[in-house]
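assembly run, all chains below
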Amino acid sequence: MSRLFSVGVAVAAGITLLFLLLPIVAIFARVPPGDLLSALGRGQATDALVISIETNLIALAAIVLLGTPTAWLIATGGGRLRDLAVTLVELPLVLPPAVAGIGLLAAFGRVGLVGGHIHVIGTSLAFTKAAVVVAVAFVASPFYIRSAIAAFESVDPALTQAARTLGAGPARTFVRVALPLAAGGLGAGAALAFARGIGEFGATLMFAGSLRGVTQTLPLAIYEAFDLDFDLALAISALLVAVSAVILLATKLAFRWRSTSPSTTLFAPSAPRST
Amino acid sequence: MALDVSFDHPLRSFRAALDLTVEPGETFALVGPSGAGKTTVLRIVAGLLRPQTGRVVLDGTAWLDTIAGLCLDPDRRSVGLVFQEYALFPHLSVEANVRFGGRGRASELMERFRIAHLAGAKPAELSGGERQRVALARALSRDPAVLLLDEPMSALDAHTRAGVRAELQELLRGLGLPTILVTHDFEDAAALADRVGVVSEGRMLQVGTPDELVAAPSDSFVASFTGGNLLHGFARPTREGLTEVVLDGGAVVFSTDSAEGRVGVVVYPWEVSIAHAAAADSALNHVSAPISSLTTIGNRVRVRVGPLVGEVTSTSAERLGLERGQIVVASFKATGARLVPLRDT
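ok done. output:
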């Protein structure tokens, strides 16, 4: 019986791993490495790579800059409104990409809720590189903020209180105590948000379009090439796999590196601390 | 610089309402079971909790006055707070921990607390005693006007406790600061504090020197908290002028205190003597029962005989050849049996 069980477990694990890895292996198997490189040499792939990296770095900077104080506020001052705030922050997480795209158009488009005002000053957000940044920030920020809330909530309140009794004001307490102790969770959240942003497709397509050299990111380039040049689509996909793998690997290494600091795991739920 | 604290604040299942004054150089211990509201006092003094109503005044300067709408932030008050479990910053070295409160005295304090050689170590690498010394040095690095200690001994093992207690005693005497010490251990309080307040469910039951509390506990709670044996029984006066108490177990003991009705009989362990047979001495009260436990504490042995705990020197315990299960007689004098009103807690 126990023998049967271990065989069953092994088979299930084998099928799972095979299923997850097969498509990734297939991408690299279909195209010889030489063709892969030459396909990437063509303008479309490099253009898309540059735009992806550029827009994602800007979006990530904005997410971290605005999301960190937001998470700190929710984690420490939340009280009764905490659960509501967390739900609002998490909403984009469960929104279908098409809905996100429509929502962004309705808000920032030329005739949108606030887009109209932007249009008055002679500029429009939709279908520009800035629109890619906005779309990425919208869908990726929940990943960072959730993780940051969990990270801040896991900082022992006695430590921030100790800092206060030692004469540190709220700002110094945040910078010297809360931030370093939450750094692991913040880093993990940033990596997750970046990975999600790199793969962002639906909302970007609807809100920013797929203009080569302007708004066409790697996933959009794959989608366009898919009809015309399947090998190119494969090559760009291989590139995306590589980028994603590097992010994942870098995160794991960063974690091992600072494993001494108390930090949250990648998918730690942002549950309230029991006090 | 005297510290005045008074407040009224609702806790989970009761209101904590306390009022105390700590004189300069005095150590005031708040003792009581966990959850009694002792730590609340420290949090209010430090500014980590704003009570519903209350005042905290240091030498005429108000830190908190809810009527005037005044409540200084913790960083604007001059307190050194040693947290339970110490709350050392885990990501900072010992030196950075101590310097956090102020650079001026850091190296002097690290020398004084014998942690200078650990300057570069992280808190996780330290022993319990070392952590406590770092926490004390850190709390003092700000040169506080008030020192607050929250269960400073509870994170230490029994072995290091005695030594640390002596060190702390010396330190508190030398500092000359008004100090509030929170502990659930009466022995720690007796060793370190000038005055002790026994707290239960947010109320101060009795305040006095440790000797006063032991000599005249105001009720059964204080008595059992100060380490006395507490026996329940029914008292009535005898013709000889003594009080006879029929214990709930059926045994009869005598006391020189006068009382009638339900009472608690308090007997301190050092007033109980142990023998193989009831001696023809002056003790009126004898309890004969098997020894249910023997615990050695330093040079003393605690012997549990039926409902009583007696304390004898290890030399006596050895001479008598005490063993678990052995039937012995525990005796105490009628003058050593204090009668106190019972509290239903």
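The first helix of chain B runs from residue 38 to 46.

The first strand of chain B starts at residue 3 and ends at 10.

not gonna interpret more than that til we talk
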